[in-house]
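Notebook, bench 3.
Goal today: get a predicted structure for Ig-like domain-containing protein from Loxodonta africana so we can plan the truncation constructs. The sequence was checked against the plasmid map this morning, with no discrepancies at the termini. Length recorded as 336 residues. Pasting the sequence as submitted so the record is complete.
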Amino acid sequence: LSPLVLPYFHVGVLAAKGQSCGSLSDFTLQVQGPVRVQEGLCILVPCTVFYSHKDWTYSDPAYSYWFKEGVDVNKDASGATNKQGQEVQEETQGQFFLLGNTGTCSRSLNIRNTRMHDSGSYFFQVERGNMKFTYKSNQLSVHVTALTQTPNIHILGTLEATRPKNLTCIALRACKWGTPPTFSWTGTCISSPMIPNCPVLTLTPWPQDHNLTCQLTFPEAGVTTERTVQLSMFFLYALLNVAITVFRGNGTGSTITENGLLPYVQEGQYLCLVCVISSNPPGRLSWDQGSLTLSSSLEPGVLELPKVESGDRGEFTCLDQHPLGSKHVSLSLSVQ
């Protein structure tokens, strides 16, 4: 999968193979329109031309020109031409290209790095031998609209906390012309230096990481487009925090994040042990006392001891089983 893919638009009908451009008695231009393209992208408009077989021979090359409506064909340069060395408009130089050789009927117009001022009507002119004709009745209408297409951020597989992963910024369609865009990445999750103008980002994510943005800039048109994703939507992270919160009968609570000893508990006292985890998706919680697995009618991870008994002394363990592994935390209960 190529990381650099830009939109390409193909409009119109090509001439039938083997049909002579001078086989008709009149002048005909086949071009479809109007056509639309987003700013900064490129467009290919196929065009087929036919003209009267007068004042030229088959040895004469056929030269073609595209002019923007409003120019004087006798004084002004064209926007695009296939005549080598012929002057073109400064604003279309390196941007408008006439495709198709002088021996065929195809005169496709390729516009690259489109800009808003490219919008308008364009008419065609053909020149061959002593024949010159301007097609004013069938013009090409081009509408350049604001750039709304955004790239995609492709994540192959699943994001896992603390494990490096490659993310790729891509668009949806391919275009072989035009100036490539520049890539940039922004986000608080980016900690290591990035390769300049690279669509691939190597990221080591953490659960606290949130938004990541890929921005494309089309330098010739001076426009940008971007896509932001919430990493948490793609995250699968293992247990980073497992803690037990102990609530006593008087409503006070204390938290144990590492295996530890709970201060003495009076016999007959109420205790509620709540196991708190941080993982996505949530793992399967269970409570063990020694080698016994305890059941609870409350929410998963909650173990209630209405009246502590002497037989409750010992080690209580909260276990979280997760697709990426498991983790546990224990406390030792002493009963007076």
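The first strand starts at residue 8 and ends at 10. The CA atoms of residues 213 and 228 lie 4 Å apart.
Flagging this for group meeting.
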